[in-house]
């Protein structure tokens, strides 16, 4: 409603004495976002970042396996599913095209967005943040958001080189990847999701319960270069 | 939402005698508060981050018009629509409009305090659209026809048995003999009930923890993942947010997120934090076709530049509730409106009017715990004191009251005058109040006696009794009252 718009803005400008008080530092803040305080916790060499990431993710009730190279991914997933007594049907993101799923004939692999009936979703994380063991997903044709939201079990594939110290490092990479408008402002994907552990609630007598609407299990496979 | 804040004293009285509620509230101190303390201890930069978060939000408030206009530009550029709404009515109408155009029958909702503020559920129901709350706690209280009693733990006042009874009563298509004796079973039942609702809803309504001017994004924080299913599955995503939620950049949002979960539940980060920007892109396989942001004022602009401006920094973490001895004694419902605890006691008078907020500014011992834990360093006790002063000063129209106040101040300043006057007044009150033990009407105090009786004095003043050596012990006093 344009009338509400004008009325609200007029009220704000009056309250802020905008005639006398010019806008301060706000233009430059948007042009070149300054860095705020960043916890030292994540600042480390790669080896220790990976270690921190795994510790923090486990603290948030995720489970983590580390492998070398993508070749063994299908086997590792098959083992994981067996260990959890889960069926072998998985819904997989297109961002994992390089993986030779045929190497595990037991796995039945579907592509595309997740459906309500899918039990296991596998997608690739854009980054991992050591600070809190957080995964970052960018939505898009290669990585539909439903994959990490709908199935009760989610398997996240995270390349070791994508493990970063803090969220600010991740924003830098997101900005590099995304298109810019004429003024240089970043156009984000529809959904940038930070995921720290499996879904949970404390709504019934403050008891911690996993798997409310999002996945009950979050298994992270960290893939090294080897 | 209808307010019953003016009945605060009665509601608080009842709450203190509710054994279920008292048991539930007892867990707050050992739960959230301890976890917050541990999270703060783990992060050496925590106090610095609090200062930073405060500075960011103060900067936003000084430039609120600028950031909102930038945010609007970016939302439109990203293919979304932005609707400015002055008050609850305007927001309700706009939301209904969008739902009608989409021919919507059902709406999934992710917990939103602004949704409560504008009573969107009741409004949609009246217009034959079914709103379905998806946050587990909100779902439970929606089934029970209750309102949230805590801004982040809406069903904190309930125990397991009460949830079980509600599910048995409302989920009538399920096997009556099923077992529901563990929290996990209750959770699974709620999850399966809500699954189809998620998949079939036409519209998803969420709140927003923040709005980002740099990118036109809305930030959603949950632990359950219900907000994500709410904005990803239906054809239309509607975000309702108030003006003060805007922050400049992704980095600024990040700094505030670092103190939010730690202050709220003691988590390092909530499970799901999603930055939503626009409808789905051309090649996306999932996501909504339409993205609407309802940008609501509902009293916020009035607080800007006022002595209550600091309250606009609030990020609704709930820490002040979790650490408040008054909240822990009476729970959230006693506050009578959407918000509760110290932040509620400050915000409710600001949003619905001091005259309708009754005793809320007095719902605090001013112990200072809330300010000590508030991540945004809001001086809550100071703001409560400011409301008390305002309440005391009375409305502008009440000039007679003001004159009397001045007279009273003169008397108070002179002990002799005061004692003489008090003894005189007591004599008068004794004579008139003797029969019933209370006054249903008093001259010049209509505001008070409209909703309650003014108690008649128990006897002479403390000082005059003491002088006569007549002061009774509490015990004797009690006996005397009981005999009456
Ligand atoms: S007033 Fe402070 S502590 Fe209370 S909810 Fe708001 S931000 Fe949290």
Present the secondary structure layout.
The complex is a heterodimer of chains A (226) and B (484).
Chain A: H1 2-15, H2 26-31, H3 46-59, E1 63-68, H4 73-83, E2 89-92, E3 108-111, E4 120-124, E5 127-129, E6 134-138, H5 146-149, E7 153-159, E8 163-164, H6 167-177, E9 191-195, E10 200-201, E11 209-210, E12 217-224
Parallel strand pairs in A: 1-12, 2-3, 2-4, 4-7, 5-8, 7-12
Antiparallel strand pairs in A: 5-6, 6-9, 10-11
Chain B: H1 8-16, H2 19-42, H3 46-62, H4 64-77, E1 81-85, H5 88-101, E2 106-109, H6 113-117, H7 120-126, E3 130-133, H8 136-144, H9 160-170, H10 183-200, E4 203-206, E5 210-212, E6 217-222, H11 226-232, E7 236-242, E8 246-247, H12 250-264, E9 272-276, E10 290-296, H13 300-303, H14 319-322, H15 325-330, H16 341-352, H17 369-373, H18 380-393, H19 399-413, H20 415-433, E11 438-439, H21 446-449, E12 454-455, H22 462-468, H23 474-483
Parallel strand pairs in B: 1-10, 2-3, 2-4, 4-7, 5-8, 7-10
Antiparallel strand pairs in B: 5-6, 6-9, 11-12
Give the structure's gist in a few sentences.
By secondary structure, chain A is α/β, with parallel strands linked by helices.
Question: Could you characterize the architecture of this molecule?
Answer:
The complex is a heterodimer of chains A (226) and B (484). By secondary structure, chain A is an alpha/beta fold. Chain A has one domain (33-223): NagB/RpiA/CoA transferase-like (Rossmann fold, 3-Layer(aba) Sandwich), CATH 3.40.50. In chain A, 27% of the residues lie in helices and 23% in strands. The mean pLDDT of chain A is 94. Chain B has 484 residues and is an alpha/beta fold. Chain B contains 23 helices and twelve strands. Chain B has helices spanning 8-16, 19-42, 46-62, 64-77, 88-101, 113-117, 120-126, 136-144, 160-170, 183-200, 226-232, 250-264, 300-303, 319-322, 325-330, 341-352, 369-373, 380-393, 399-413, 415-433, 446-449, 462-468, 474-483, and strands at residues 81-85, 106-109, 130-133, 203-206, 210-212, 217-222, 236-242, 246-247, 272-276, 290-296, 438-439, 454-455. Chain B has a six-stranded parallel sheet with strand order 1-10-7-4-2-3, with helices on both faces. A four-stranded mixed sheet of chain B has the order 8-5-6-9. A two-stranded antiparallel ribbon of chain B has the order 11-12. In chain B, helix 16 runs parallel beside helix 18. Chain B is globular. The two termini of chain B are 42 Å apart. The chains are: A alpha/beta (226), B alpha/beta (484). Strand 9 (191-195) of chain A pairs antiparallel with strand 9 (272-276) of chain B, so a sheet runs across the interface.
